[in-house]
């Protein structure tokens, strides 16, 4: 059983030191020469939690509400800045990491010692605002810029080590369609490059052993849409054509596999088929599963939906894939949770007039699926209210029964369900406005406890609430 670890700790004064992105900070020794502007310098997390940004009310700063000890380290966003809370210490307060630009959480290392995040100089996801890759320790100190060049999309941690991979634009006039795949690892207080490979690719995913990568290669006139299995040195180990031939002469055609989600046993991969028309793809694309164990296996269509990898979730035993089915770019309407077995047989699990999102499984058997559910509605630009009022966290048990897990009023909505390894504790964000809420804890049949107040973030593209506002590393990793 998951037990609360209540630690009595005296507040220690944090050393106020600022690391810059020079050789002293341990940046990855990679070539620059891209003509890009340097990323803004960041503090090392030594600011006290009472720091208030210009124009911000003191009462709006993040507040630890409950002293309940939770064996987890929680990264979260507040007013576009990154904060970290060591919730395992009952008297710990949130530590501010960034004070400039706009931060976006990428995720924790496998051992929870390091957090990767992106820093935008201007508005996040703006075409004119490059993203720079940073790392920070779990206690909020030692932040440093990993690479001087802007990165493309999110970096991805190895599932078993402190190794991670990310993409930057390839240099040279003839490299318009190619990207540089960088594999690096945390070593001591800095990151070092393991390998770099220039290739044409759309997306990649780690294999469960942490020694190989599955790479998505877009269609071209001389090749079909393809997945390739490579080692960390870039050597090709296997090739998986996803179509029989190139179809680039057609007006609309499948371009690339994206949002790759490899099953925990490494035998199958789920992904979205992005089309060559972005506007069309934003309203939904095919979802497929491919068997990686059989040469010449064909993709299996299981549905269609919005191309968010966060909406694909394999059960820990790799037997089931939960996904969100439904077209139209609005995340608040016509989206249903579905479950596919390893062979592609689909079990509908949605309900009429309801909208679902954010599926996640318990780590312990019998595997239970958690997800968000509310009354579907058309997306409206209303900053005062949640996009799906009354949305709660739901649970689907192994026997197929479903019930709401959280409770609240129609003035609130619950998002980002995050389960402890044994499934006995649930962390989630309760919205009281479109872009503001609190982090709550629920354990078993006990009442919901407000743990942290003033968590903020973006409603995302048509209400998808992405990128995620929180990232949780559970210090008790093994399910009981």
TrEMBL record:
Signal peptide positions on this chain: 1-23
Coiled coil: none
Residues covered by region (Disordered): 30-64
InterPro entries associated with the record: 6-blade_b-propeller_TolB-like, WD40
Coiled coil listed as a keyword: no
Entry keyword set: Signal
Keyword Secreted: no
Domain of life assignment: Bacteria
Record family assignment: Belongs to the TolB family.
Family annotation (PANTHER family): PROTEIN TOLB, PROTEIN TOLB HOMOLOG
Protein known as: S9 family peptidase
């Amino acid at each position: 059983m998951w037990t609360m670890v209540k630690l009595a700790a005296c507040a220690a004064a944090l050393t106020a030191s600022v690391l810059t992105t020079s050789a002293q900070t341990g940046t990855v020794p990679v070539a620059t020469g891209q003509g890009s502007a340097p990323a803004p310098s960041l503090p090392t997390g030594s600011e006290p939690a009472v720091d208030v940004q210009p124009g911000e009310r003191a009462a709006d700063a993040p507040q630890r509400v409950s002293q309940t000890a939770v064996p987890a380290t929680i990264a979260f966003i507040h007013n576009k800045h990154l904060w970290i809370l060591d919730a395992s210490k009952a008297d710990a307060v949130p530590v501010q990491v960034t004070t400039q630009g706009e931060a976006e959480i990428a995720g924790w290392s496998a051992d929870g010692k390091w957090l990767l995040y992106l820093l935008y100089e201007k508005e996040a996801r703006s075409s004119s605002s490059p993203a720079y890759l940073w790392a920070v320790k779990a206690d909020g100190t030692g932040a440093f810029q990993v690479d001087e060049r802007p990165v493309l999309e999110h970096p991805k941690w190895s599932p078993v080590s402190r190794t991670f991979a990310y993409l930057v634009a390839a240099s040279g006039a003839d490299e318009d369609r190619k990207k540089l795949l960088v594999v690096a690892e945390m070593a001591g207080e800095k990151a070092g490059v393991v390998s770099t490979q220039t290739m044409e690719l759309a997306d990649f995913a780690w294999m469960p052993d942490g020694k190989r990568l599955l790479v998505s290669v877009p269609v071209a006139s001389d090749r079909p849409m393809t997945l390739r299995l490579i080692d960390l040195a870039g050597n090709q180990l296997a090739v998986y054509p996803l179509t029989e031939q190139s179809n680039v002469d057609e007006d609309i055609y499948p371009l690339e596999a994206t949002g790759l989600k490899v099953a925990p046993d490494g035998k199958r991969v789920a992904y979205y088929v992005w089309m060559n028309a972005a506007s069309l793809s934003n309203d939904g694309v095919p979802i497929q599963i491919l068997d990686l164990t059989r040469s010449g296996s064909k993709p299996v269509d299981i549905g269609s939906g919005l191309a968010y990898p966060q909406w694909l979730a394999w059960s820990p035993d790799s037997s089931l894939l939960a996904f969100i089915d439904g077209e139209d770019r609005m995340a608040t309407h016509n989206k249903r949770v579905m479950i596919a077995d390893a062979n592609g047989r689909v079990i509908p699990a949605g309900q009429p007039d309801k909208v679902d999102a954010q599926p996640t499984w318990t780590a312990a058997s019998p595997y239970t699926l958690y997800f968000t559910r509310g009354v579907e509605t058309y997306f409206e630009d209303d900053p005062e209210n949640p996009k799906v009022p009354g949305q709660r966290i739901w649970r689907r048990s192994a026997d197929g029964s479903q019930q709401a897990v959280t409770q609240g009023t129609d003035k609130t909505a619950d998002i980002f369900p995050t389960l402890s390894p044994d499934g006995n504790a649930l962390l989630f964000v309760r919205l009281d406005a479109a872009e503001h809420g609190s982090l709550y804890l629920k354990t078993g049949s006990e009442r919901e406890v407000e743990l942290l107040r003033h968590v903020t973030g973006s409603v995302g593209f048509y209400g998808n609430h992405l990128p995620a506002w929180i990232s949780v590393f559970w210090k008790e990793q093994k399910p009981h």
